[in-house]
Amino acid sequence: MDIAEVLTLADQLIFAKTGKHLDYVQDAILRGTLEDATYTQIAQELYSSPSHVRNVGSDLWKTLSKGLKRNITKNNLRTVLEKGIVYNYKSSIVENITGENITVNKNLNVCPEKVRSPKTPQNPQPTAKQPRIDLGDAPEISTFFDRTSELTTLENWISSRTRLITILGLSGIGKTALTLQLIPQIQHEFDCIIWRSLHNAPPLQTLQTDIIKFLSQQQETNPPNPPLSRGGEEIQPPYPRRGEEIQPLSPPLSKGGLGGVIHHLRSHRCLIIVDDVQTIFSSQQLAGNYQPGYENYGAFFKQIVESCHNSCIILISWEKPREIAALESHPKNCQTLQLNGLGESAREIFTEKGLAESENWSELIEFYQGNPLWLNTIAAAIQDLFSGNISDFLSYDSLVLGDLEYLLHQHFQRLSDSEKQVMSWLANQNKAVEISKKPALLELSPSEFLKAVESLRRRLLIEKVQKGDRTLFTLQRAIAEYIKTHTFEQSA
Ligand SMILES: Nc1ncnc2c1ncn2[C@@H]1O[C@H](COP(=O)(O)OP(=O)(O)OP(=O)(O)O)[C@@H](O)[C@H]1O
Ligand SMILES: [Mg+2]
Description:
The protein is an alpha/beta fold.
């Protein structure tokens, strides 16, 4: 039984006994206790005071003791839960120590009180709540085809309280459209949803202030516990008693910044969507290196994964931030969706564009990897230059045209010299190749070569092909074509 199961179970027990779910402080206390943390350590994690955490803990043990009719303390919690409950939990019935049965619902998750409600199909809940949504400058999507499995994956991650989701993919593959399509499907899970683009490369402080401004409006309209305030600044519990000296406010909560964001993420279930994350990475360096002055974004993302809360942040990017690879070892908290092309569903694009010769559509989709933006661009060019005649277009030597070159150029101008060399080498291979040995003609050390390959993988610019137990690497055809007809040869 892992911590998540114990927490879910504890939550269900408390709900069955009190009609209330664990709040975020109780949740943190239970997690901390199961991880042998002291009250002081838990308080640090919560930016709260040890005495407040101890008081909440003491009440929590009393409630659990009543529910289980057995004395529960911080010291014996794990043993009692495991010995008394685990066996029967497997059959969805908690038989407590007194023999009383409490039916529990395995689908319940531990989350803030406002969000949680048991899913009982026989007794449906009132209509789903409406979260506050600020989509900022997110684009509108007009048409949207398929992506059923990707939407299901994202929905599942969100329902299981994944804290950070990265959606990776080349430009135009449909990351933004997919995420916008997701919102109506998951919005009932959240109290507030905010979308921000890093297109203009805002410093982290600016983004955090913007997010806190929006999220704090949520707290004003719907506070989890009515906050006390002094001079416009919120005082966190434990509130001072009469005559007691008022302690200075804890900086993270009162002044914003990372602590402020985390505080809001704990108080309500929030969804933060950060688009165009690649903007804050350096060009002409290996992938995922922050531009000078933007390194603190890395700590921000890491803290969101590692802190205790029930909110979620979705990062949309061409490149994977460096921290994410390490954080993915905790798949419950951190997941990555690599977005590939639309496949045969992309035929709808050609139908919509009124293209003829449907027998040639699959070839176009394969060549442009089902990338909806590339296919839209190419379909428009075929209509304009070839009166919709695909075979005339396909008979041309060079298949990369007009605006598509500009789209690909955006990716290539970001590459380091070593990456450009590897790309040029790969573009000139006729088939997928092994990389176990550095090719002799490349003026790179073996380590530079491997780093470049790894970085290109992180940018999703080279593809892996598994042939039995051999791993081979290759380029998408449109990308190879682009490189062969452009300027990278001279750097290889
Ligand atoms: N599933 C889809 N069905 C139809 N059109 C789509 C689909 N996904 C994306 N598109 C269209 O393709 C274009 C590119 O999509 P989108 O802007 O979401 O790509 P992106 O991956 O976010 O690109 P970038 O990284 O450059 O922001 C848009 O015009 C969008 O409407
Ligand atoms: Mg986008």
